[in-house]
Write a structure and sequence with these properties.
- The complex is a heterodimer of chains A (166) and B (174).
- Chain A has 166 residues and is of the alpha/beta class.
- Helices cover 29% and strands 20% of the residues of chain A.
- Chain A starts with 12 loop residues before the first strand and ends in an 8-residue tail after the last helix.
- By secondary structure, chain B is mainly beta.
- In chain B, a hairpin with a 5-residue loop joins strand 2 and strand 3.
- The two termini of chain B are 21 Å apart.
- The chains are: A alpha/beta (166), B mainly beta (174).
Chain lengths: 166, 174
């Protein structure tokens, strides 16, 4: 995977699940950001991982962190996938595969769908990569405890009142 | 004190307001004015604080759902019904053109304003999640007041400080 920790992730712009143009920096909104790329709604591995993230959102929703998931599915498909999962974070759609090669995330072994290779990036609000996970093999993806540790470390680094003010 | 966005339903356009637009019922009957002030201090007794991003003097007319619980019946912002409404806003596959909660203090939910445009705007506003918290009134607001605000990224339902109307605001960078 070419994007590594300490590098700055490109502030890409893509359509969200409702068809609105969104940038990563706007979606981070000053908070830590978990960015996942996934093959598509049809992949059982993605369905399994997304169900884990859906469970995780009950913590993230009170922890001032954003989640964004991106695939090559068009907005209407990704909206249906999102709704079926019960996800409450933003899904981005790149059906034109505009960012696939620039991010070096094309899954070359799938010559049918030409999807994103599964990956997870934990980013600071200014899109510096804190950690990067290659999810080509399912066990390469972070568990929720690993995401908790990453988000704790990023949050500690960006919140001036991490040590309780006295 | 930093500048704040105050919103109030009033009988006539206040000269002191930074922006105001006439309101009509869905049947076309006059229903007063919606006015906003961008200032530190509260401009009129009925004013409640909103996300300042909603204001756009160039914004076009919109249908709105206005939830204004009485001051003697305000639930706390952490009330599970208010939490549930915020989750429902985030889950919506067709986000509204703008959503702001309203505040009068750091603890209570003092209402919400949701705007939509397009042919199904009124029908979609009948599903305003905040209607489960308190009575929602559907109105049409003229142009010159409300813009469009990108939907919150999700899944955060908490305010970025108790002083900030959800979903706006962010913590200061260090």
């Amino acid at each position: 995977m070419s994007i590594q920790p300490h590098e700055t992730f490109p502030d890409l712009v893509a359509l969200d699940h409702a068809g609105r143009s969104r940038s990563l920096s706007e979606l981070a909104g000053g908070d830590p950001l978990v960015l996942t790329t996934f093959r598509g709604f049809w992949c059982p591995k993605e369905q399994a991982f997304m169900r884990r993230l859906v469970a995780f959102q009950d913590e993230v929703e009170v922890a001032y962190s954003s989640v964004v998931s991106m695939s090559v599915d068009p907005p209407e498909v990704t909206a249906a996938f999102r709704a079926g999962l019960g996800a409450r974070w933003t899904f981005l759609a790149d059906p034109e595969r505009a960012h696939l090669d620039a991010l070096d995330l094309r899954e070359h072994t799938d010559t049918v769908h030409h999807p994103y290779r599964p990956a997870v990036f934990v980013l600071t609000p200014d899109l510096v990569v804190h950690s990067a996970y290659n999810g080509y093999w399912y066990w390469g993806r972070p568990g929720l405890d690993e995401l908790r540790v990453d988000l704790r470390e990023v949050t500690r680094s960006i919140r001036s009142d991490w040590e309780v003010p006295r | 004190m930093n500048e704040r966005c105050w919103l109030a339903l009033v009988d006539a356009a206040p000269p002191s307001a930074d922006a105001a637009a006439a309101l009509r019922t869905p049947d076309g009957d006059p229903a007063g004015w919606l006015a906003v002030w961008l200032q530190a201090s509260k401009p009129v007794r009925a004013a409640r604080r909103a996300d300042p991003r909603i204001v756009d003097p160039n914004g076009v007319a919109a249908a709105v759902s206005l939830v204004l619980p009485g001051r003697d019946a305000l639930p706390i912002f952490d009330d599970t019904a208010v939490q549930g409404a915020r989750r429902a806003v985030l889950a919506d596959a067709e986000p509204a053109d703008l959503v702001t909660t309203l505040l009068i203090d750091a603890s209570h939910f003092a209402g919400s304003l949701t705007a939509r445009r397009g042919p199904n705007a009124l029908a979609r506003l009948r599903d305003d999640p905040f209607r489960h918290v308190s009575l929602a009134t559907l109105l049409i607001v003229d142009g010159g007041l409300l813009g469009t605000v990108a939907p919150p990224p999700g899944p955060v339902i908490e305010r970025h400080g108790s002083d900030v109307p959800w979903p706006g605001g962010r913590f200061p960078a260090i």
